[in-house]
Design brief:
mainly alpha
């Protein structure tokens, strides 16, 4: 295909239009991160065959990347982080635009149904993405602040078991970058605040501590 495009009379509007349609069709067929990576590799091999084609190739790739990345689930992002890292560093990929798509996917996962399990999965995703060292890390700043805010809401009504799960399953997985260190500190303060509130709360058993409260006190006193 590259050789054929190099020989094609791309200065002819009808020929260039046909090539655009062909590339757009290929881009629309890309599904999932693996499909996107295959497309990115194929289109990258065509770059430089004809100068007029580079802009067409880049547009087709970025349209496919936005469509695929913005709709990814947390599980798909976690498993596909290496593929996303390779796509991100391909020639012609606009990292700033792809950052927007990735932030859309991450923000959508923090909407309805957010619980400790989702929080732990989310932490695993940002951990996997951080390992790819994406230029201008898109999980920094806004995403870290949004996650901390959702965690604050979750912890405000959490019980001791949930609080302990957050401390054991979520915090250790968050990246150690500046934005995430700050978010982790905020979440830890919310954990401490909720733990104190739960310990002060009246027992629903007529003054006797609940099993969870007794377990927490034994843990804190070193008897566990």
């Amino acid at each position: 295909l590259g050789t054929a495009l190099g020989l094609a009379p791309l200065q002819e509007p009808s020929v260039l239009s046909a090539v655009k349609d062909l590339l757009d069709t290929c881009a629309r067929r890309a599904t999932g991160l693996e499909g996107l990576l295959v497309l990115a590799r194929g289109l990258s091999s065509l770059r430089g065959e004809a100068a007029v084609l580079d802009a067409v190739i880049d547009r087709a790739l970025m349209e496919a990347a936005h469509r695929v990345v913005s709709c990814l689930s947390l599980r798909q992002l976690q498993l596909g982080a290496p593929a996303l890292g390779e796509v991100w560093n391909r020639p012609g990929v606009d990292g700033e635009l792809l950052s927007v798509s990735l932030r859309e996917a991450l923000a959508a996962s923090l909407d309805a149904g957010f619980d400790v399990g989702v929080a732990a999965t989310f932490a695993g995703v940002v951990e996997a993405l951080a390992a790819q060292r994406l230029p201008g890390d898109p999980t920094e700043g806004y995403v870290a602040c949004l996650f901390a805010a959702r965690m604050a809401s979750l912890l405000s009504s959490a019980g001791l078991v949930e609080v302990d799960r957050v401390e054991a399953e979520v915090l250790p997985r968050l990246p150690r970058t500046e934005a995430w260190v700050e978010a982790s500190a905020t979440i830890q303060r919310d954990i401490d605040r909720q733990t104190r509130a739960l310990r002060r709360a009246p027992s629903p058993t007529g003054g006797q501590p609940t099993a969870g409260q007794r377990w927490s006190r034994r843990r804190d006193s070193g008897r566990l």
